[in-house]
Structure formats: structure tokens, C-alpha cells
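Following up on my earlier thread - several people asked me to post the actual chain instead of describing it. Fair enough. Here it is, all 229 residues.
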Amino acid sequence: MKKNILITGCSSGLGLALTQYYLDNDFAVYGISRNKPNIDNKNFIFKEFDLSKLDSIGTKLTPFIDEIGEIEIVYLNAGILGDIKEMKHQAVDDIKKALDINVFANKELLDILSQQKVSNIIAISSGAAKNGSKGWGAYSLSKATLNMLINLYSKEMLETKILAVAPGVIETPMTDVIRFDVDDSIFTSAKILKSGEIQQPLDAAMRLDNVVKRANEFESGSFIDVRNI
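Reply from S.P.:
Thanks for posting it. Predicted structure:
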């Protein structure tokens, strides 16, 4: 019997690469995203859903997730960058938008998953959760909160290995915004990102799979940066 993978944000970037990687390795992949990726594979089961609709996650996604049965790996990958601005120019409502997608949608999903048999949950975090870089306020706050959310759920979902993982810098539409649209003379962290290692999405997907294969080395609830292991 094929093992099951659940991936949010499966239509582009890292989520799409993870989807393709696991399909190529003969898993059944269940994807959740606003847009359906161009994948023609009988082992890909797709649910169209906008995770910003927090009040509907329980009613709309519980039946979809219930039908999966046992899940080998869940990738909580869907997320948004938010605006790159100084904190004094960050509107509270804009910060809330980042928190809704990057934290509270995952909280709703974890509530559903806590009722399932799940071996591993990988929440896609970021080095920004630890580094207070100028301009990244909404994103950094949301990813730092996500790390704590994962830590807290690990104390309750004792049969599941739950990790917050920073995958490193990946060539995706999100990082393209930083590399090409952000003034790095004002936001110097963008300059560091532009000059550093940038992975292709498939390479990042393979590194994340390696984290899962080494999951016994890590304490459930911890934050891991793939660049440090």
C-alpha cells in the first residue's frame, strides 16, 4: 500500500517540488492549495481551498483529511511573505494577514491532524524566525510564532514527530520578490540573501525529505535549520 503525504501550498515553489518529488517516489500525495497545479497523476488527490478562510478550515478540510487515513508526512508549507517594510510602517492588519496564513491556518490544520494517525509533521519555518532583520517584521513575527505553535503541539501529539524546519533560501516567487523588488540599500538583509546560496525547489524538497528520514535525531517540537545539520 502506498504511503500518504499531505502538502499545503502545493501549486508552486517548494510545495510543487515536494509534490512532484513524492509522486516520483511512488507516494500518494494529497494537496491543498488555492490553485490546482498542472499535474496529471492518478496518485495526486487535490483539494482547492484558500487557507485564509480560517472559519471554514474545519468544515471544509476535515472530511478531505479524514479520507486519507494514515499519513506518513504532512508538510505545512503554505505561507505568505507579507510586505517588506520598517516596523513603524507595518500596519497591524497587514501583520494579521501574515499571522492568519502562517500561524492560525496551521493551528486549525493541526487540530484536525491531532485526530488522525500521522507519523511526521514538518512546518516550513525560516531563519527569519530567529533573525530580527529590518523589514521582515510581519514574516519574522509569524514564523517565530509558528515555531512556538509547533513546540506546543508536540507536547500534545505524542505519537507524531513534529518539527519546524527552515529549508534555506529557495528560488521561488516569494524569494524573487526579495531578490528583484526590494531595495537592498535600505534592507541590507536582502543583499545577504541575493549573494548567498539559492537552491532550486527540488533540491530543497530532497533536503526536507532527508530531515524526515533523520527525524529520530531531533526532539519533537524543535526548530531546525537545514543549513546547520
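The two ends are 32 Å apart (CA to CA). That should answer part of your original question.
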